[in-house]
Design brief:
By secondary structure, the chain is α+β, with helices and mostly antiparallel strands. 40% of the residues lie in helices and 21% in strands. It has helices at 2-51, 86-94, 106-115, 177-180; strands at residues 70-72, 75-79, 99-100, 121-127, 130-133, 146-147, 152-156, 159-163, 172-176. Strand 7 (152-156) and strand 8 form a beta hairpin.
């Protein structure tokens, strides 16, 4: 009797295993169908881009920036090792065909705040109670507010501040990729 009960269980176990195997086949067929559709879609996109004369996006060449400079959003950056006043810092950047950092958007501001640690000079200075970048453009006050009462700006962990231009700090030079080539 005990043997018969075991045999009955084994029979039911086999039937359930068959059903599980059957449902797995459908799962694998569904996965194969999705993968096939994805390959066809990618092939179509590739074909359309080729027929329109578009090449796939390329990574920037490794030698885009001068040696020792960082790359981010089509700009190269150099963080100084030494300290100088604001004017000497700008002169140093100019001697490397660059300028003190000109911040163009919030992503760049956030990136620079993450990688700079010692409150470096940037290319922003006060002229007639208004801030201007070294490229001649006026500061867009919606980008950020400059704290402090000085005439030359520097980057700190909480944003941008200004102090006396005669103080010595590290600095950040920036170079647009278009002018680097």
């Amino acid at each position: 009797m005990a043997g018969g009960a075991r045999g009955g269980s084994a029979g039911r176990g086999t039937a359930l295993s068959g059903k599980g195997l059957f449902s797995n086949i459908w799962l694998w067929r569904a996965v194969a169908g999705v993968l096939t559709a994805a390959v066809i879609l990618i092939s179509c996109i590739h074909f359309v881009n080729r027929s329109l004369g578009k090449d796939p996006p390329a990574c920037p060449p490794l030698d885009l920036c001068p040696s020792g400079w960082l790359y981010f959003q089509r700009k190269c950056y150099n963080l100084s090792e030494s300290e100088a006043d604001w004017n000497s810092s700008q002169s140093h950047c100019s001697s490397h065909n660059s300028s003190l950092l000109v911040i163009e958007n919030l992503q760049e501001l956030s990136f620079m705040m993450k990688i700079t640690k010692q409150n470096p000079w940037i290319g922003l200075y006060k002229r007639n109670e208004e801030f201007f970048w070294v490229n001649g453009k006026a500061l867009d006050n919606e980008l950020f507010e400059v704290k402090g009462s000085g005439s030359c700006a520097y980057l700190e962990s909480k944003g941008v501040s200004a102090s006396g231009c005669y103080l010595t700090r590290k600095w950040v030079c920036s170079l647009n990729i278009n002018s680097a080539q």
